[in-house]
Amino acid sequence: MPVDPALRALNIDLPARPEVLVQLSLLLAEDEVDFIAMARLIETDMALAAAVLKALNAPIYGLRHQVRTVQQALQYLGSSQVAAIAYEMGLRSVFPSTPELDALWTRASRRGLLMGLMARQLGLNAFVAHSAGLFEECGKAVMLRHAPQRYGPMLKAAPSDDLLVLQEMQAFGVSHDALGAALCETWMLDPAAIACVRYHVAVHSGGTWPSLPAARPLCALSTVAHYLLRAPDMLEAAVPAVAALAPLDEAALMQTAREVQCVMSTRL
């Protein structure tokens, strides 16, 4: 998905992917991920390694014992889970710390974990799904960094994302879903994750789904995570429709959603 030329003309800065994540992506592309090399790479960035370990020791990951090294984390959780957390910490590091973004990153962390867990159970790529969930709202962070005084109040007052994108288009000529997809493109995420980020607002509001086949199951997981986090009582009504559009097996998706909901309820 190429970056829209009109978006480039806005002169909105898209932060570059940290070098450690560039190297990490190369390791993940190998047929057999070298856990030792991966641990050493993450540990070369002391701040990143500390943030990864702090995140992985949070109750949300349900580890019975505290992990003290990245190598231990890889043994307990595997490369996909640890890499996803490294990407989360790397993404957060390129934006300023603000109350608005703190809340955004909390949602992103939970959404990414939900989507990754569901993907794993359904036989989909867990890292790609986790990444799509993590980056879903990153366009808001880009917009806030670009115009904090104008965008901050807009973000705070918006009752929903579908209304927010209309306000963004009127004020800036671009919406956060497009900006998020552009950042994903810059960071060389999987095309399915990029499309999921680009279409998430439309999908959640009952609009257009991406034509890319690999992105459609991710959009279904994104929608299920959306309801789990915001309106769990509406989950059973939402699953049949998104399963049909994905397409995914409705019974398997419902069972997976319920299992993940139960797991998360014990950790949050």
Tags for this model:
268 residues; mainly alpha; Hypothetical protein af1432; 2 domains; 16 helices; 71% helix
Outline the fold blueprint.
Layout: H1 5-8, H2 19-28, H3 35-43, H4 46-56, H5 70-77, H6 79-93, H7 99-122, H8 126-135, H9 138-146, H10 148-157, H11 161-172, H12 176-186, H13 191-204, H14 215-230, H15 235-245, H16 250-265
Helix pairs in contact: 2-3, 3-5, 4-6, 5-6, 6-7, 6-8, 7-8, 7-14, 7-16, 8-13, 8-14, 9-10, 9-12, 12-13, 13-14, 14-15, 15-16
Which class best fits the helix and strand makeup? mainly alpha
How many domains comprise the coordinates? 2
Query: Which regions are unreliable across 5 or more consecutive residues at pLDDT < 50?
Result: none
- Categorize the overall geometry: globular
Please identify which CATH superfamily of the largest domain we are dealing with.
Hypothetical protein af1432
> Which architecture of the largest domain does the CATH hierarchy give at level 2?
Orthogonal Bundle
The secondary-structure element order is: HHHHHHHHHHHHHHHH
Proportion of helical residues = over 70%
Structure in words:
The protein has 16 helices and no strands. The longest helix has 24 residues, at 99-122. It has helices at 5-8, 19-28, 35-43, 46-56, 70-77, 79-93, 99-122, 126-135, 138-146, 148-157, 161-172, 176-186, 191-204, 215-230, 235-245, 250-265. It is 71% helix and 0% strand. The two termini are 35 Å apart. The protein is mainly alpha-helical. The protein has 2 domains: 1-13 and 98-268, Orthogonal Bundle (Hypothetical protein af1432), CATH 1.10.3210.10; 17-93, no CATH class. The mean pLDDT is 91.
